Amino acid sequence: MWLAVPVGEQGRPVGWDGAVNAWRISGGIYRMGRREWLTEKGWKQAFDDGVRTVVDLRNPSEGRRRDSDPVVPASAWAAFDVVQAPTEESGDPRFASVTGPYLNDPAHYPENARLFPEKLVGVFRALALAAPRGDVVLHCAAGRDRSGLVAAMIQDLAGDSDEEIADGYRRAARGINERYRTHGPPHSRERYLTEGELGPLLEQRGLAVVEFVRNLDTRGYLLAHGLPEAELDSVSDLAFRKITL
After folding, report:
1. CA–CA dist 206, 74 (Å, integer)
2. Nearest of 54, 199, 74, 52 to residue 134 by alpha carbon
3. What is the mean pLDDT of residues 69-96?
4. Cβ distance 21 to 164 under 8 Å?
5. In whole angstroms, what is the distance from residue 155 CA to residue 224 CA?
6. What CA–CA distance (Å, rounded) separates 139 from 55?
7. Domains of the chain
8. Long-range residue pairs from 221-230, CB within 8 A, at least 24 positions apart, any chain
9. Phi-psi region of 227 (alpha: psi -120 to 50; beta: other; left: phi over 0)
10. Which entry of 11, 17, 159, 176 is 20 to 30 Å from 142 by CA?
11. pLDDT in tens, 31-49
12. What's the pLDDT score for residue 44?
């Protein structure tokens, strides 16, 4: 049967096998870390939950299998469309001068939006085009900042409160931090943070995410940069999509 998504469903963790940092953002839109972590069983679970499209927010050079990733047969992918929709221009010196090697702080989200409006419009166009097929999961590498930027914009469109938007970022940051505790960080620029370090940092960064979307005005920003209103409405409908139980 079909039910409206109750408040408790927004931001709930998703238990697809192998998925790291996977959450429902709103309605029929999910977020997670790199898709290569999912097992064959995990992809079946995502399909059973209604997902039909994967939107990859990474740059193309990042999408590669690691030796530690599960082996997944090609048949597990057959039912999904995978769409590349990066949130930034790889190697752009203007952005790197602000963020360093990669985006890892919501204080830099406004610069991402200023420099790459066409990229963010492309993400939302991908969501709009995917909506008729079913639900959508978007992902970056950690499932924290590029996913966090887009997730905050989606939550803004969905009418979430400041606290819900801040909590969305904090949950994802805690999720990948826990991954670093159990599996180690992927490189020397990341490390596991203790609660004493993480708590104050996330308080500040949650507020920065809220400030970003409230100053941005997601709907006005996307329309001003060329997303057709009909496509924006499709994304909004997806964010309010009812779920099957």
Report:
1. 38
2. 52
3. 94
4. no
5. 19
6. 6
7. 2-244 (3.90.190.10)
8. 221/113, 221/117, 221/120, 222/120, 222/121, 222/124, 225/117, 225/118, 225/120, 225/121, 226/118, 226/121, 227/121, 227/124, 227/125, 227/128, 230/128
9. beta
10. 159
11. 999 999 999 999 999 999 9
12. 97
Integer angstrom CA distances of residue 62 from 48, 58, 130, 193: 27, 6, 22, 24
The answer to whether residue 173 scores a pLDDT higher than 90 is: yes
How far is 112 from 151, CA to CA, in rounded Å?
Answer: 14
Which H, E and C letters describe the chain, residue by residue?
CEECCCHHHCCCECCCCCCCCCEEEECCEEEECCHHHCCHHHHHHHHHCCEEEEEECCCHHHCCCCCCCCCCCHHHHCCCEEEECCCCCCCCHHHHHHHCCCCCCHHHHHHHHHHCHHHHHHHHHHHHHHCCCCEEEEECCCCCCHHHHHHHHHHHHCCCCHHHHHHHHHHHHHHHHHHHHHHCCCCCCCCCCCHHHHHHHHHHHHHHHHHHHHHHCHHHHHHHCCCCHHHHHHHHHHHCCCEEC
Cβ-contact 29, 240 below 8 angstroms: no
Average pLDDT along the chain? 93
**Partners of 244 in the beta sheet?**
2
Contacts by residues 177-181 (CB-CB < 8 Å, ≥ 24 positions apart)? 179/20, 179/21, 179/33, 179/142
Phi, psi (rounded to 5 degrees) for 40: -60, -45
Q: What is the pLDDT of residues 221-230, one digit of tens each?
A: 999 999 999 9
